[in-house]
Design brief:
heterodimer, A: mainly beta, six-stranded mixed β-sheet, globular, B: mainly beta, seven-stranded mixed β-sheet, four-stranded antiparallel β-sheet, 11 strands, about 50% strand
């Protein structure tokens, strides 16, 4: 069964700092990995989707990497801003003994960017 | 604009009542999903549907029921058999249920037992 872990559970940084959020998964036979942002009491907003054949995706100040062989993904946020404060979740689609249509979610990393 | 609409945003349920959460999408997606989110925990899959008139149980289906009579709609009923229904419920869709496509989420429904 696929398991997804996000460390740390919470992170606080000063404004302007570059930071990395981590996501690890136990089964490398995945279809894709997706990073989401969730604001308190809101739904999930998709940030980046990396296919299993890709190594990274970029959108603005965000860069996500994928290393299937080691079961790891990172989300890099450049020049952080207070508006980046939110919970960031990663979701892995597929894996051995996991239906290809299902994603497994990590518990998230709650980021606070202080002005 | 295309998207997923969940309603209501807040829902209160009395003990022993069944309640239905609405999820509608105009993205022409084949696959739809219901997740439950509890504080400090990740999302757990309740039910999913990869095509109209077909759906499968997820990891925590007990006490819930769904239907998929139309491509656009995937309502979730929380029955009285669900002993701890207070949670945040999220509906999602994907172009199809297999392979390479990612998820689009609705804004969620917060259900509280009173």
């Amino acid at each position: 069964k696929q398991e997804v872990t996000q460390i740390p559970a919470a992170l606080s940084v000063p404004e302007g700092e570059n930071l990395v959020l981590n996501c690890s998964f136990t089964d490398s036979a995945i279809y894709n990995l997706q990073w989401f942002r969730q604001d308190p009491g809101k739904g999930l907003t998709s940030l980046l989707l990396i296919q299993s054949s890709q190594r990274e995706q970029t959108s603005g100040r965000l860069n996500a990497s994928l290393d299937k062989s080691s079961g790891r993904s990172t989300l890099y946020i450049a020049a952080s801003q207070p508006g980046d404060s939110a919970t960031y979740l990663c979701a892995v689609k597929g894996g051995l003994n996991t239906n290809a249509g299902k994603s497994t979610f990590g518990d998230g990393t709650t980021l606070t960017v202080k002005p | 604009d295309g998207g997923i609409t969940q309603s209501p945003k807040y829902l209160f349920r009395k003990e022993g009542q069944n309640v239905t959460l609405s999820c509608e999408q105009n993205l022409n997606h084949d696959a739809m999903y219901w997740y439950r989110q509890d504080p400090g925990q990740g999302l757990r899959l309740i039910y999913y549907s990869q095509i109209v008139n077909d759906f499968q149980k997820g990891d925590i289906a007990e006490g819930y029921s769904v239907s998929r009579e139309k491509k656009e709609s995937f309502p979730l009923t929380v029955t009285s058999a669900q002993k701890n229904p207070t949670a945040f419920y999220l509906c999602a869709s994907s172009i199809e249920g297999q392979g390479i496509y990612g998820y689009t989420f609705g804004s969620g429904t917060r259900l509280t037992v009173v």
